[in-house]
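Regression test case RT-17, inverse folding.

Input:
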């Protein structure tokens, strides 16, 4: 793996190029050239989990933000960031919905050099709870000892959050068994007894409760993980270096999508039935977290620090060199929860 310093130097060089192009462009030029010159590629495949978190990309597509930048963006469903990373690294996708744990693991393990184009989602209360079946005998975190717990992929943000929650009751990962179950299949897995508990997110939290009576045992996003940064829009360092103008165009469009999602809940809610396959009534009842409209190293660093603390990393890791700063003026305002 190349050092963080070398990555940072390359990112700074890219940003300097974009800045010079921005100065050279006039306000009357076409969207494809605005800000960073002619696009190297115009078609971008995005892998995203069909959950609330990824709402901004669907908003950006529906509102024509990518089209205004000269991009044709296709969004395809993936099961999780860990599952999407191989497809990102082999070029199947140019951008993925990557949970921050899997992304940091990929960098530190040498699996691939990837960068954050933008932040995606920040947890709110009960947006990622640990749920149990209605008739479960478990009522508290300490009751999870010996339990089989479903997470969408192993060694990712889910296992990290559950382990942090287990620690509040004096338990560790060795006291439970994690199994990988896609989010849409978790309610049925709980109902059938295939798993004892599930780390689940919206819209499936609301769906599991409404249809099966599943209940929340604990909020995994509280205490040390309150307001935890969950995921980002990730690309490979190589793709960004080869396509700096297209990367900048994607950043501008996705940040507009993040802003729209942050300002208006309905912007995402209205699209959930189509991309998440749920009923409009369920979409109207689900709990939203926050859609960040800026990218802050200090926020994402919380993930790396907790990973080190819980033994996911052998050494401390600094995220800042892997954050690709957006084009000037692309970040609209501070993050907000949709009203």
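Golden output:
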């Amino acid at each position: 793996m190349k050092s963080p310093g070398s990555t940072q130097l390359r990112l700074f060089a890219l940003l300097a190029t974009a800045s010079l192009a921005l100065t050279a462009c006039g306000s009357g030029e076409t969207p494809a050239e605005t800000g960073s010159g002619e696009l190297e590629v115009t078609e971008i495949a995005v892998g995203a989990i069909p959950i609330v978190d990824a709402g901004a990309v669907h908003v950006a597509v529906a509102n024509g933000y990518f089209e205004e930048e000269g991009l044709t963006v296709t969004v395809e469903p993936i099961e999780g960031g860990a599952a999407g990373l191989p497809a990102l690294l082999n070029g199947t996708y140019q951008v993925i919905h990557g949970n921050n744990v899997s992304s940091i693991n990929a960098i530190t393990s040498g699996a691939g050099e990837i960068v954050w184009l933008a932040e995606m989602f920040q947890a709110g209360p009960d947006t990622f709870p640990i749920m149990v079946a209605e008739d479960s005998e478990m009522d508290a975190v300490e009751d999870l000892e010996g339990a089989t717990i479903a997470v969408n992929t192993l060694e990712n943000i889910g296992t990290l959050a559950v382990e942090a929650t287990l620690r509040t009751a004096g338990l560790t990962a060795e006291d439970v068994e994690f199994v990988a179950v896609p989010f849409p299949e978790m309610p049925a897995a709980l109902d059938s007894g295939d798993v004892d508990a599930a780390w689940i997110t919206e819209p499936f939290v609301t769906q599991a409760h409404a249809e099966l009576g599943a209940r929340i045992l604990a909020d995994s996003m509280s205490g040390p993980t309150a307001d935890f940064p969950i995921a980002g829009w990730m690309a490979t360092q190589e793709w960004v270096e080869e396509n700096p103008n297209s990367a900048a165009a994607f950043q501008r469009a996705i940040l507009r999508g993040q802003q729209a999602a942050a300002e208006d809940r309905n912007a995402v809610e209205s699209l959930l039935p189509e991309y998440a396959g749920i009923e409009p009534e369920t979409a109207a009842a689900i709990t939203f977290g926050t859609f960040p409209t800026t990218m802050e190293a200090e926020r994402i660093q919380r993930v790396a620090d907790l990973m080190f603390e819980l033994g996911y990393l052998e050494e401390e890791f600094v995220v800042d060199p892997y954050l690709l700063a957006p084009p000037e003026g692309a970040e609209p305002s501070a993050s907000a929860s949709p009203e």
